[in-house]
Amino acid sequence: MVSTVSPGRRHLGALALATTALGLAAPALAAFPDRPIVIVVPFPPGGGVDAAARAMAEGMAADLGTAVQVDNRPGGTSSIGAGFVARSAPDGYTLLMGTTSLSVNPVMQPSLPPGDPRTALAPVGQVLQVPYMLAVGPTVDSADLGALIAWSRANPGRFDFANGGSGSGQRMAASLMAYRAGLQVSHVPYRGSAPAVIDLAAGRVHAIFAQPIEVASVIQAGVVRPMAVSTAARSQAFPAVAAVAETIPGFNISSWSGLFAPAGTPGPVLDRLNAALNASLRNNAMRARFRAEGAELVGGTRAAFAELLDREIAGWTELQRATGLTID
User: Fold this and answer.
1) In a domain, 275, yes or no
2) pLDDT (tens digit, 9 = 90+) per residue, 104-161?
3) DSSP string spanning 85-153?
4) Which domain holds residue 114?
5) Phi-psi bin for 186: left (phi > 0), alpha (psi -120 to 50), beta?
6) 124 and 265 both lie in a single domain
7) Residue 25 has pLDDT above 90, yes or no
8) Distance (Å) of CA 148 to CA 63, 80, 136, 212, 265
9) For residue 29, what pLDDT is reported?
10) Looking at the domain assignment, is residue 145 inside a domain?
């Protein structure tokens, strides 16, 4: 499914003037972009990643002075869309809205496209960071995470963690917490987050790490409790909810999304895309909209996003080697 955002071209004159000062690089930059850009979203329309991509596309279109299209290519744990972009021409006109799966798949399912994203793709910039929320169901009496960990240690193997799929970020977050806390837990995979949350609310499983919006309705209904968020500090959207790091020092993981281009895309083109991305994320209404759902717009440099990818792949590799974790 493809949709298009068509802006005016008011920024083209400023771009041409700015690039003139760059000497030999000016002609290439002045010519980019001269046709629509496509952002591939490796998920169906309507989800959080899709919504972020569409909001970002609107802002980038205004800044770049050209149309920006969103193309949904779901499937294969996001590998179908990622593989498509990795095989595309490295000219800046086909981009990927990549997610945490780009750091998980190379470790847990390395045969999936695009393989190692550090060689197959070029980071443009981070878009969102969303904490995982540790939510517990009605059968959990523990008042806080410390008490829950103590119960789990006293009852090895009895603590059930639901997740939306054995290769999901939810599973990885739960596995990391179990490893760091020295717990023996049972992982219960579902076909997506929705049925996992239904069983959590019904008391069939004890807990889940989920994006806040995925458990918002059952928390508001009072049948599920938020116990902790997975980021290093408390979320601005949920200041009363503790961070896992308050109990397990150094714990820090989140669900993220960001923009990638095919490997080999020229540096000046990547820089122009990064500038447009950051401009789109400075929209205060957009920031408030996503913050209400527990998500933070990030932005920043290409290098910082590349470092995030390196760090996460290294962390998941360490976890896999230490625990023998496999994807069922």
Assistant:
1) yes
2) 999 999 999 999 999 999 999 999 999 999 999 999 999 999 999 999 999 999 999 9
3) HHTS-SSSSEEEEEETHHHHHHHH-TTSTTS-HHHHEEEEEEEEEEEPEEEE-TT---SSHHHHHHHHH
4) 2-128+254-321
5) beta
6) yes
7) no
8) 49, 39, 10, 20, 48
9) 56
10) yes
Can you list the alpha helix ranges (DSSP code H) found in the chain? 12-20, 26-31, 48-64, 79-86, 101-108, 117-120, 145-154, 169-181, 193-201, 212-220, 267-280, 284-291, 302-323
User: Cα Rg for the chain, rounded, in angstroms?
Assistant: 21
Provide the residue type at 309 as one letter.
L
User: Of 195, 219, 252, which one is at a domain's C-terminal end?
Assistant: 252
Kindly report, residue by residue over 204-230, the tens digit of the pLDDT.
999 999 999 899 999 999 999 999 999
What CATH number corresponds to the domain at position 202?
3.40.190.10
What CA–CA distance (Å, rounded) separates 169 from 175? Answer: 10
CATH number, domain containing residue 277: 3.40.190.150
- Tell whether 109 and 156 lie within a shared domain: no
pLDDT at residue 285 above 60?
A: yes
Helix axes 169-181, 145-154, angle to 10 degrees: 70
